[in-house]
Amino acid sequence: MAKANESIAAGLIARLAPKRREAKGSVADDLFDEAFLKQLELLQVIARRLFSGRQRSERKTRKVGSGQEFADHREYSPGDDIRYMDWTVWVRLRHALIRLFEEDEDLPIRIIIDTSDSMMSSDGKKLRYAMQVGAALAYVGLANLDRVGVTMASRKAHTTLPAVRGKGRIFRVFEFMRGAESGGKTDLKATCGRVAAESPKPGLTVVLSDFYDLDGASEGLNMLRFRKHEPVAIQVLDPDEADPRRLALRGDVKLMDIEGGGDRDVTLAPATLTAYAEAHERFCAQLHSSCRSRGIHYIRADTDVPFDDLVLRIFREGGVLG
Amino acid sequence: MTLGGWTLAQMWPLMAVGTAAITAMYLLRMRRRRVVVPFAALWEQVTRQSESRRLWRKLRRLLSWLVQVLILGLICLALGDPKPEVWLRDPMTTAVVIDRSASMTAPSDEQPLQSRLAVAKMHAEEAVQGLGPTDNAVVIAAGEEVAVASPMAGDPSVLVPGIKAIEATHGEADLSRALALATHAVSEQPGPRIIVLTDGALSTAGAEALSQCVEGPVPCTVRTIPGPAENVAITAFAARRYPYARDKIEVLAEVENLGDAAILVRLDIEADGVSVGQRELSLPAGASERVSLPQLDAARSRFIARLSHANGATNDDGTPAAVGLAHDDLAYAVVPPLTPLNVVLVTDGSNLFVEAALLTLDDHIRLSAIDPTAARAGAAELEEADVVFFDVGAEKLPDPLPSKHLVIFDPWRHEDSPFFIPKRADKVRPFLTEQDRKHPIMDHVVLKDVNIGRGTTFTTAPGDQMLVGTLGETIGVLREKATVTVAFGFDPRQSDLPMRSAFPVLIDNIVRYVAQREAGFVASIGVGQGRELVLAKLGLPSDGVTRVEITAPDGATHEAPVERGRFRLRALQPGFYRIAGLDGAVAGAAVELAVNQTSVRASDLHDRVAALELPPAAEAEAAPPPDPLSGGPLWTLIILGVAGIIALEWATYHRRVTV
Fold it and tell me: Which residues of chain B are within 8 Å of residue A238 when distances are taken between CB atoms?
């Protein structure tokens, strides 16, 4: 088995090498290198162990249909298949009820990566991290024979990779990510709305963003939820941005929004930095609370945590791919 | 302050242009450092509060401008190379002489809560603090002993500790030696001068030395620290045994009011911690009064006299307040030890009456008898004798006679007698017609009807006293010089005097008279007086003693060599000194000696400097203000100050970029 994995990784490297050269100058430069691919293989092996015993693509939808597992009753209405009548109830109560079953359906995975300018700060550290996590999730999903689609969007650009299936399609995912246009303002509401509209089937939708969008973030996630998606919010944070005390900023500065908002003259004192760190922490807590209240899985991803550690944490905590 | 570099005319344009440039730069908009943030909306929420402090920000900007202008001003000042005036004058060498006599412990007029010495030390510190970078000073403390408190130095940090360490001593200030030392120390140095800090309560010698110093080649100025002259002192204190009752003692104290106003004081005398007498004395200005306590038990050995205010005035801490000077409010005395007189009788053995009379005095004398031959051979007993009785009859006297107290009967039996009072005439059956009955030797003695076979009269010299005479000629004589000589010009064997009751009385009177004169017992000595003391006179036999251990009242001990029964002692503290023999026959034995401040001059607080009428130039001026910088160019310190301000500004305002 190990030899087989190594041969797959070697093949992946051989196919990706020229692409890396073509994508020179992008945020994704050297992103999906040999080490990354080896880590993906390792993740896939670990994921297989975590999900061992489960049939492939047996993720259940919330749809009620023709599955094997009883889900509910409903009143009989003319035209219903009488094979699903609950005769026991009819005999006992003389009440016509139809038995409903959960429908086993292939659940698509949609990965949304925020490519706005805020994700490009600190030399695109957050975007790179989000792409790594997204690629890892996609790889694991493809390895499980799930259909995986990727959307990289901001207000400026919105590109979508239609859902693909099969482990070998991971290279398309890489190429898509490498070639996606980045920049522009954060607009999670529009992005999520568009994804929800474009998706023919609701599924697991992982949103990788810093969520630096005070109102749009919650609305976008809500929009996915209303379209029967199972949204997962992964907030990618740069610790230096979350706590600017680590950067030891001082004095009179002009704060400029990376997404092109207005600038602001401020005097940075230790107290100001502390206040910002506390406000940022409150913002994250508020997002977490908001997600939890809506049944949305929330994961905080600091960029100083290796992406593979984060992915494993996601697997272990469950609810995303498990 | 003088500018050694740029002139004011050169500095002002730079200052004006620089200030204008700084102001122009501050009027331009500040270019802030740009910081790109990913979440400006959150920053806006946080920084909204700081916006409300815009007024303070404006003030801070003004303050920053002022700091920059200050830095520019300091740089201009540094270019001017400022130098204090004191740096530019010629170097000076100053000898500061501080009077630390006992009188300096009295309060001063200048600062009543401080002693004169404290004020003098303060002025001395001011003087050394005002030294220029090329000046030097030496500090001399003048007490009973003269000491260099601080060696020659130019750094006040070296000189001041020595000044602070000066403490008052007992006794007077030896200004003569102190000024001689000061003159010697600075005379060869550049810009010599002497500053004398004293309260003016000087001895005659001190005042004369000061006057000579002022008129001397080295400029000498005097700064007096006046104070009230009120003081009452114990000027004498002694205890003695009664001549005729040696188991009883008498204590005598003399108290003198040296101030200018009448005062009522109380004198307490205690012996070995027990009060034995108390007197209240009302003393007009300048008056003195003697107090004696008679018939005290001789068992007491230590006496202390203590002077205090009659109204019981006390200090803040509850201790009795001093009457003027505290040093002279205490006096000490010890009772002289009972030591027998060493009497040697030179006799041919034919007259036992003299020996018998002497033997009755056995309690007071140690009698030894030798024959004339041994005396002529220079017997050792004569060397140790206090009194030598010669009753040799027909034998010859030793030549020369021992230099002791002598009692000689019939010294001119032989014409070649070595006796130093010349013979006047031989007398046959002389009648004793005159007698000095008031003289102690003749007390209770009547000789006028004594029958004498033969005798000789003496040719007396001025100072000799005739004890007994015959028809105007002296036949019994007393000569007192270094020693006492009592001579009778007849032989007791050739008279009926030994048969009379007057004879033992006469012998006893002679012995007592000599003993009292010999009593040279040193009851007390003065503080600071270095003097030679005879062990025997302290009541400690000097047989074979080569070293003594001296223990001061504060417990400090030192050894002193003894040579021929004498040693030198310079006592610097009042109190009881203990003298112990370390070797010889008295090894381990000890006696006590009282030391007092007995100098009336040292207790007199009147200013004698004013009476000297010193020229105005001799009055010391107030010390110049301390030189803030004792060395190094001032501009370097200014630049350091500028660097400090910049560092402070950077630390408090750093990361701010102004254009």
Answer: 38
